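Hi V.,

Quick status before I head out on leave. The structure for the redesign project is tokenized and pasted below; the design run finished overnight.
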């Protein structure tokens, strides 16, 4: 049962990153992409929590959904920091040329 939930966790993270990448390709904004991943963290956290409550039939299984949301929150913070770093580098290169 544990391997199922780990696979589900990885699946949610990969899907959120793919949707974030597609959002970046469409909007050309890393900030919007990070916000999308953050919103998907809430959505996938609630889906994962509800799914585990139904599968395990234990109210404490909702913490699995919180764990999914936590990992996607960390993921969106990393994308946000990359966006800030890219903006600083772009601005620095624009001023030097």
């Amino acid at each position: 049962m544990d391997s199922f939930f780990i696979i589900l966790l990885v699946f949610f993270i990969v899907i959120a990153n793919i949707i974030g990448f597609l959002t970046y390709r469409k909007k050309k904004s890393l900030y919007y992409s990070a916000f999308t991943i953050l919103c998907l963290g809430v959505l996938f956290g609630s889906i994962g929590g509800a799914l585990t409550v139904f599968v395990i039939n234990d109210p404490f299984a909702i913490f699995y959904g919180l764990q999914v949301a936590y990992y996607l929150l960390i993921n969106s913070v990393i994308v946000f920091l990359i966006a800030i770093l890219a903006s600083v580098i772009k601005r620095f290169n624009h001023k030097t040329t």
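Above is the designed sequence. The chain has a mean pLDDT of 83.

G. will cover questions while I'm gone.

Best,
W.
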